[in-house]
Amino acid sequence: MLEEIPFRVSTHFQALDVTLANTWDQQRRYLKADIFTLIYFASELWGVKDASEVFFKHVFGSAKPGAHILYIDNDSDIFTHWFDTLAAEVGLEEVQSWSEDARMPSDEQKDVLASYLTHLGWPKMKARVAVRVLQKRQIDT
Ligand SMILES: C[S@@+](CC[C@H](N)C(=O)[O-])C[C@H]1O[C@@H](n2cnc3c(N)ncnc32)[C@H](O)[C@@H]1O
After folding, report:
1. pTM of the model
2. Scanning 7, 37, 43, 57, which has the fewest C-beta atoms within 10 Å of its C-beta?
3. In this predicted model, what pLDDT tens digit does every residue of 43-99 receive, in sequence order?
4. For the chain, what is the mean pLDDT?
5. What burial class does residue 16 get, using C-beta atoms within 10 Å of its C-beta: 0-12 exposed, 13-18 middle, 19+ buried?
6. Are 68 and 34 in contact (CB under 8 A)?
7. Whose CA is nearest to atom 10 of ligand 1?
8. What is the distance between the alpha carbons of residues 15 and 135, in angstroms, rounded to a whole number?
9. How is 85-105 classified by DSSP, letter by letter?
10. Whose CA is nearest to atom 15 of ligand 1?
11. How many CB atoms are located within 10 Å of the residue 78 CB?
């Protein structure tokens, strides 16, 4: 059963390709979000990083003051260095930053991995992940 949370969550779906500005530059609504999550997203786009930087700079630059950005990805320097550099360039402030070993939760549905589980056994699958919690600078009063 889902726990009740003391705030309202609203969702908005929007299809876009970060490398094609005409699929996102007319959209403004998502920029009002309180939190942006980039979960295994930067590593996916690293191969097209020059083409996707304009999108990240646009989102981080346009996010409202106080908005949070949660980054979780493979703890490899090539991804974290890219993301940390981008974040610093647009003036995001670090709230917390750490790396940890992540394992799949025991209650995660993993039938699709059955052959790997047979081969490797449970619970050998783990990944080293980097986590960043950042915040768009608040406006000084
Ligand atoms: C590794 S998945 C992570 C998805 C999700 N965050 C999760 O944790 O399940 C990477 C995502 O990046 C999306 N993606 C890849 N290239 C993209 C692009 N050029 N524009 C927008 N999304 C893209 C893929 O469609 C995929 O959903």
Report:
1. 0.86
2. 7
3. 999 999 999 999 999 999 999 999 999 999 999 999 999 999 999 999 899 999 999
4. 89
5. middle
6. yes
7. 41
8. 25
9. HHHHHTTEEEEEEEEEEEE--
10. 44
11. 12
Q: What is the pLDDT of residue 11?
A: 83
Domain assignment present for residue 46? The answer is: yes
Domain that residue 34 falls in: 24-136
CA distances 132 to 47, 120, 129, Å, are 21, 30, 10
* Eight-state DSSP code of residue 108: S
Answer yes or no: is 32 within a domain. yes
Residues 115-132, mean pLDDT to the nearest whole number: 74
The pLDDT value recorded for residue 104 is 73
The pocket around ligand 1, CB under 6 angstroms, is made up of 16-19, 39-41, 44-45
CA separation for the pair 43, 30 (Å, rounded)? 22
What is the number of domains present in the chain? 1
